[in-house]
Fold each of these.
Amino acid sequence: MVLVAFLQAQNCSNYPASWRHAETATDFLTPGYFQRIARTLEDAKFHLAFFDDRLAMPDRYGDDFAESVRHGIRVVKLDLIPLMTAMGLATRHLGIGGTYSTTYSLPFHVARTFATLDHMLGGRAAWNIVTSLNDSEAANFGEDAHPEHDSRYDRADEFVEVVLGHWDSWEDDAIVLDRATGLFADPAKVHRLDHQGKWFKSRGPLTVPRSPQGRPVLIQAGQSGRGRRFAARWGELLFVLFPPNLGFARRAYAEIKAEVARHGRDPPGGDGQCDAAGVAGAGKG
């Protein structure tokens, strides 16, 4: 069994009114709050603590945030990297995964941020790739409207290509640290990316050497037809929605395995039965 904890860096649990319970902790703006969660998960033998995220507070009702703020409905959304660092430093084995958007970020920044995190956590970091959700997020980044669905995934495909290219710009044994000769690293094993595509230009090399696990794990949860193709191409850990019945779950699992194979990757093993966590590792092939 693989155990994954679904978390949000906010003032309440997934149940929005949970902050009103008499025994709910109120120190959600402190590292100790998230470190307690991390230690509890590690003691319970969880494999991964996973953070969802959104880049705007709920304000679609009447185009106003007042009711959300008044009732504490997920209005606190902390940046994930400091939280993941704090949780990782409080544990030894727990994987820490966090969400960063390809629509409102740049590839070099994401590559550098998650590669650094992976070093600090000894190879326990994962990046959940999303394309964001709505116009409220767009407005926070100076855009009039959220981009069209399929074009977001087209951009995300190139985004991930650039991130992976940067993560591969240092070879595993590039660092030499030869004090006698004064050779810190072998220049022949550090490479420019020189990516020029439709959406991005990025030169490189990345300023962060290879991490203990090579690079962070890629998480994806695409559910639409285009999203599923994206997940099959890149995902190494796939989240799925709760299916209405076992037959539906088996068909969906078989379809994603077939899509993974169409991308020339090794599909996950098994006979099409979904595990209890609702996730399937898509492999790194």
Amino acid sequence: MELSDRIAAVNLRMDAAAKRAGRARDSVRLLGVTKTRLPEEVAQALRFGLDLFGENKVQEARAKIPLCPSGAEWHFIGHLQSNKARHAAALFSCIQTIDSIGIAEALDREADRCGRSLEVMIEVNVSGERSKFGTAPEQLCAVADAVNRLGRLRLTGLMTMPPFSQDPEEARPYFAKLRQLRDTLSAETGLVLPQLSMGMSDDFEIAIEEGSTIVRVGTALFGPRRSLASRQKEDIGDGP
């Protein structure tokens, strides 16, 4: 299947999920996850109407984003380390994975250094898995309050990743919990938090039914990820 066909197929599934939930289709955006993808693939996706993309690693983004068309909007969706905050502040319009006050403060300093304001979301570990990044639900209010006090960051919502399961339906309680956490936080603090980033290739329809406003889709759009060896071979060619 061609990229244009996969984009169209994902959009049709999003349309159907939004309709089932009684939502307007334009209330949820499709983010293409471009980890291991080439700038040429980003350019092709742009031609087919996809304009929002996400990267998991700052180092890969630093090499890729300058080679991509200027019409692309970029979000950071991986775990952010404080020593990568400077580059992240310069490269992305939104950081979806704030998971501590320290990371937020580092990002705010670097955004100030380069004269930018950034949209941010707080990543919440709704499952409590030790293997997952994200702030604990009981710490969410404190982190949100700290982020809201920073001059260069604009907090717009929450992000999460549920435990992996072969059955997409098993993700539903985790998506519902993130929505409930957002609603409670907004009610208690008065913060306006319109964004919920949740749902990936296997479960984005469930996420839309539970209120997601951004679904992060990679494999369903671009196919299986390339291995490191195959990417290096593409970069340097087959040799003489």
